[in-house]
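Note to self: keep these together.
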Amino acid sequence: MELTVASLADRPEMLRAVLDMPDTWAEFTTQDPVGSAHYGRIPAELPEYVLFAETERGEVLAHAYSVPFRLHTEDRGRLPDRGWDQVLGWAFADLRRGVRPDTVSAISIVVHPRAQGLGLSGRMLAAMRESARARGFTEVVAPVRPSAKHLEPRTPIEEYAHRVREDGLPYDPWLRVHARAGAVIERIAPASMTVAASLEEWRGWTGLPFDTRGDIEVPGALVPVRCEPERGYAVYVEPNVWMRHRL
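Structure:
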């Protein structure tokens, strides 16, 4: 399959096609308030950091979002516990203040449902790395959402992230793609994104009753969701794995 990778800065007319591309995200994962506030700003305010793969017929089969930010400052320096949420906040705060970035963070790589299994995620990651290198950056970091962790929601993320195969590569498929591209695990982001919502909202998103106090396993969730029926809400705090790519 012949694909062309470009950025929205170079091809702004493709914005609608990028935004309309189907995905397979579980609905609850799109309800993080930090992501809701900032994710949609990336194509509008940082179009050069939105890459997409296009067929000869103009169909978008994958896209990759990233953001530039300043990591190496006195009050930052370390990749944050709040992972995805924090780096989005830092990136747009830096953009507003005119702070010169020194690092690029991956935000998402999404592949069209009918194109999954064709190696597009690795191709988009390579394109993201190359784009960052071309802009003068020396590293890309990524708060990685391990793609098979949802199958083991009660396994501690520290144990899961460092599990390896016989060949020494990570057990998790998405962590493995990053490792093959040259990334190493930096640390765990224990609270990378948080979704706190009413029980009615959780029932609507998942089809589950959410009527029992305690930890509820939800399809697609990396860890159980904490349900508090007497208080009328449930909270999901998702861990990610910070990986660092030296360019």
